[in-house]
């Protein structure tokens, strides 16, 4: 794993590259620029308690904050675009601390290392003439990194609703039990309403912000719920590569149920905050995945830039 200061230097380069890819949108996140924040309650089932001492995975419910987003760095990207969607959850623990779980609507990440991600964002930089990425550059990236072909080829669904798609936290995390034993796990939010995708023809009839509008309307009728599904690694399953998945038949448990009840107050204030996928809590450790450790630096760099831009408005 590279050192923390090398990660910080690389984070500056990566965020610069993300700005070249998506344009610079002052005050906005450099990825997942447009989103909305909601109030929620998370109720653990108790099924995880034998495997981790994490406070929110025992028996008592905790409050949570959830941000759904369109994963593009350009806040004007319409919801009808076939891009990934984000679901970032902050669990507010009884001792006053927080822990985050940041997930996307696809199971694999497009890079195994931060450097590969930098190369991919460079390959996706729009051509100044056409304002679109050059397919030849993306093909060359995949040719140079054949192990990423499947991840780069993933087609994110265009969901009928933020409430009708699954979200994967992608990386492995290590759960630690009361005796100190570790179990690698992967997280997935499974929507209680089921998964429903739109066809291209259906998507063409929706508005640019239909996902946020639909969720607000849905919440006026009833809460929206997700199960927190946990996949338990087998003895030889790798924990370091977010572009790969573990076999489907690995044992799964349901660790809890998230119930989203209403839009959160102060959306503007919440835009000044940042999630951090490495903000774990006692009973959970980050794995040896270099992308996971690196994300803390990239998110901090993006947060720093957008905070300065907001202050100088
Ligand atoms: C090299 C890998 C990655 C880099 C450099 C990266 C970069 C970023 C940056 C700069 C932000 C904006 C942070 C902010 O200003 O607060 C962001 C947000 C986000 N990323 Fe990533 N990301 C990476 C991998 C991932 C992965 C693997 C996932 C999914 C598991 C993911 C899901 C998200 C989501 C959902 C958000 C929005 C969070 C929010 O609502 O505040 N990212 N990412």
TrEMBL record:
Annotated positions binding heme: 299
Oxidoreductase as UniProt keyword: yes
InterPro entries: Catalase, Catalase_core, Catalase_sf, Catalase_SrpA-type_pred
Domain Catalase core positions: 5-313
SMART domains xrefs: Catalase
Gene3D superfamilies: 1.20.1280.120, Catalase core domain
CC per GO annotation: cytoplasm
Keywords tagged on the record: Heme, Iron, Metal-binding, Oxidoreductase, Peroxidase
GO molecular function (one): catalase activity
Cited Pfam families: Catalase
Cofactor: heme
Gene Ontology annotations of biological process type: hydrogen peroxide catabolic process; response to hydrogen peroxide
EC number: 1.11.1.-
Domain of life: Bacteria
Family assignment from sequence similarity: Belongs to the catalase family.
Role description: Has an organic peroxide-dependent peroxidase activity.
Protein name per its UniProtKB record: Catalase-related peroxidase
Species annotation: Streptomyces yokosukanensis
């Amino acid at each position: 794993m590279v050192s923390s200061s090398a990660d910080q230097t690389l984070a500056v380069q990566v965020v610069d590259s993300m700005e070249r890819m998506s344009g610079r949108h002052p005050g906005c996140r450099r990825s997942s620029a447009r989103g909305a924040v909601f109030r929620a309650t998370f109720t653990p089932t108790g099924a995880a308690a034998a495997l981790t001492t994490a406070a929110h995975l025992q028996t008592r419910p905790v409050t949570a904050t959830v941000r759904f987003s369109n994963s593009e760095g350009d806040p004007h990207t319409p919801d009808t675009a076939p891009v990934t969607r984000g679901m970032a959850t902050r669990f507010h623990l009884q001792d006053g601390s927080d822990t985050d779980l940041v997930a996307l609507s696809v199971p694999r990440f497009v890079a195994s290392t931060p450097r590969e991600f930098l190369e991919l964002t460079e390959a996706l930089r729009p051509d100044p003439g056409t304002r679109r990425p050059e397919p030849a550059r993306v093909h060359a990236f995949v040719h140079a990194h054949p192990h990423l072909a499947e991840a780069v080829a993933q087609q994110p669904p265009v969901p009928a609703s933020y409430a009708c798609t699954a979200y994967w936290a992608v990386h492995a995390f290590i759960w630690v039990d009361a005796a100190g034993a570790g179990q690698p796990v992967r997280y997935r939010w499974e929507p209680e309403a089921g998964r429903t995708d739109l066809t291209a023809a259906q998507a063409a009839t929706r508005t640019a912000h239909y996902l946020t509008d639909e969720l607000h309307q849905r919440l006026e009728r009833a809460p929206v719920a997700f199960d927190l599904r946990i996949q338990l690694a087998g003895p030889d399953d790798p924990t370091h590569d977010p572009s790969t998945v573990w076999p489907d038949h690995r044992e799964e448990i349901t660790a809890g149920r998230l119930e989203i009840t209403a839009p959160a107050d102060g959306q503007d204030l919440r835009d000044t905050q940042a999630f951090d996928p490495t903000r774990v809590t006692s009973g959970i450790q980050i794995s040896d995945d270099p992308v996971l450790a690196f994300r803390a630096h990239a998110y901090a760099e993006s947060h720093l830039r957008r905070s300065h831009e907001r202050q100088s408005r």
